[in-house]
C-alpha cells in the first residue's frame, strides 16, 4: 500500500508538535514544575477519554479480580519514576511492521507517512476503513528514559507501536485483514517521557510469546518516516499470569491457548537470549481483570 508524502506533516501541524524538536533538553526536564504544553502530544486523540475511563474501571476491579495479574509482573522495573534502567535490546521488527521496510501484497507498506497514524486510541482502522479490532481493552503507558543520562525522561520522541489482534493476525498483512490498519499508532513523549495508547490485549500465535512491537524515533515525528530511521526497534513481553488469565477467560482468545502452552520466554526466538534485567524491564506491569480490562506501564531505556 503506497502512502503519500504529506499525511504525517498534516498530523504534525494539527498537533503543533514541531515545538518538541528539542528532544534532549534534559536540564529543562529535570527542573521542577515542568508542565509544558507538549503533554497534549503524549496522549491526544478521541480515545484518551475512553482510556482514562478504562484505567479507572481496571483499578476498581483489580482489588478483586487481578491480584495474580499484578503480582505476575511485580519484578518489572517499569514505573512512572525513572530511578534506574537498562538499555532495551534491539529486536527484529518482524515481518509485519508496515514501516516502509518491507512489502505487503506486492507494494511497500508504510503507515508512518499516512495521515491519521498519530493517535492514542489505535483500536480502529484509519486507512480506507474504520473497523474496530475486537478484543479485551488494554491501556498502555510507556515512558522513555536515557540510560546515559541517569535515566532522565526523554521528551519529544515519537514512539510507534503495533501488534496482532485477538486472532493473532496483523493488519495489512494477514489473511482476512489485509484491508485493515488497526492496532498501529504513533505518539510523542511528553515532558515526563510518556505516551499512552488504548489498544487490545495481543493474542499468542504459533511460535512466539505474546508481545507488542515498538520503534523509537528520538528526533520526533519529522524522523518517523520509515523504520530505517528508528533509533531503537524492540518489543514488550506480556506478563505470564495475565496471558493465562486472558487466554483462558476470554473466548475471543481461545485459539491462543494451545500456542501459549507450547512457548516460553526462554524458548522464544526474540526474548530467549535477553538478560533477566532486560526481560524485567520489557515486561509491562499490569493491573485489572478479564471482566474490566487491563491497564499497564513499561519503561523503555535507550542509550541517548
From TrEMBL:
Coiled-coil region: none
Keyword ATP-binding (UniProt): no
PROSITE patterns documented for this protein: TAT
Keyword Oxidoreductase: yes
Keywords, ordered alphabetically: Dioxygenase, Oxidoreductase
Protein known as: Intradiol ring-cleavage dioxygenase
MF terms (GO), sorted A to Z: dioxygenase activity
Alphabetical list of InterPro entries matching this protein: Intradiol_dOase_C, Intradiol_dOase_core, TAT_signal
One protein family per Pfam: Dioxygenase_C
Residue span, Intradiol ring-cleavage dioxygenases domain: 147-207
Domain of life: Bacteria
Listed PANTHER family: INTRADIOL RING-CLEAVAGE DIOXYGENASES DOMAIN-CONTAINING PROTEIN-RELATED (PTHR34315:SF1), PTHR34315
Ranges for region Disordered: 48-108
SUPFAM superfamilies: Aromatic compound dioxygenase
Compositional bias annotation for Low complexity: 48-87
Organism per entry: Novosphingobium album (ex Hu et al. 2023)
Amino acid at each position: 500500500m503506497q502512502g503519500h508524502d504529506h499525511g504525517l506533516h498534516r498530523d504534525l501541524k494539527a498537533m503543533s508538535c514541531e515545538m518538541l524538536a528539542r528532544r534532549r533538553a534534559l536540564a529543562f526536564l529535570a527542573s521542577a514544575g515542568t508542565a509544558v504544553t507538549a503533554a497534549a502530544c503524549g496522549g491526544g486523540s478521541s480515545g484518551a477519554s475512553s482510556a482514562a475511563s478504562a484505567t479507572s474501571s481496571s483499578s476498581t476491579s483489580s482489588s478483586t479480580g487481578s491480584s495474580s495479574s499484578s503480582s505476575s509482573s511485580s519484578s518489572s522495573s517499569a514505573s512512572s519514576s525513572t530511578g534506574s534502567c537498562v538499555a532495551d535490546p534491539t529486536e527484529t521488527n518482524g515481518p509485519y511492521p508496515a514501516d516502509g521496510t518491507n512489502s505487503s501484497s506486492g507494494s511497500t507498506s508504510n503507515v508512518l507517512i499516512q495521515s491519521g497514524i498519530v493517535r492514542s486510541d489505535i483500536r480502529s482502522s484509519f486507512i480506507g476503513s474504520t473497523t474496530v479490532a475486537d478484543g479485551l481493552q488494554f491501556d498502555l503507558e510507556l515512558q522513555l528514559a536515557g540510560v546515559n543520562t541517569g535515566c532522565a525522561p526523554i521528551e519529544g520522541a515519537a514512539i510507534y507501536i503495533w501488534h496482532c489482534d485477538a486472532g493473532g493476525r496483523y493488519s495489512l498483512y494477514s489473511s482476512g485483514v489485509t484491508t485493515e490498519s488497526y492496532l498501529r499508532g504513533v505518539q510523542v513523549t511528553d515532558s515526563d517521557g510518556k505516551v499512552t495508547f488504548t489498544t487490545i490485549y495481543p493474542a499468542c500465535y504459533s511460535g512466539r510469546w505474546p508481545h507488542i512491537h515498538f520503534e523509537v524515533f528520538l528526533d520526533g515525528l519529522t524522523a518517523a518516516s520509515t523504520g530505517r530511521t528508528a533509533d531503537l526497534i524492540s518489543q514488550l513481553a506480556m506478563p505470564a499470569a495475565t496471558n493465562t488469565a486472558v487466554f483462558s477467560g476470554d473466548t475471543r482468545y481461545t485459539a491462543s491457548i494451545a500456542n501459549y502452552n507450547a512457548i516460553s520466554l526462554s524458548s522464544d526466538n526474540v526474548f530467549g537470549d535477553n538478560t533477566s534485567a532486560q526481560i524485567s524491564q520489557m515486561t509491562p506491569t499490569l493491573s485489572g481483570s478479564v471482566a474490566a480490562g487491563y491497564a499497564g506501564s513499561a519503561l523503555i531505556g535507550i542509550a541517548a
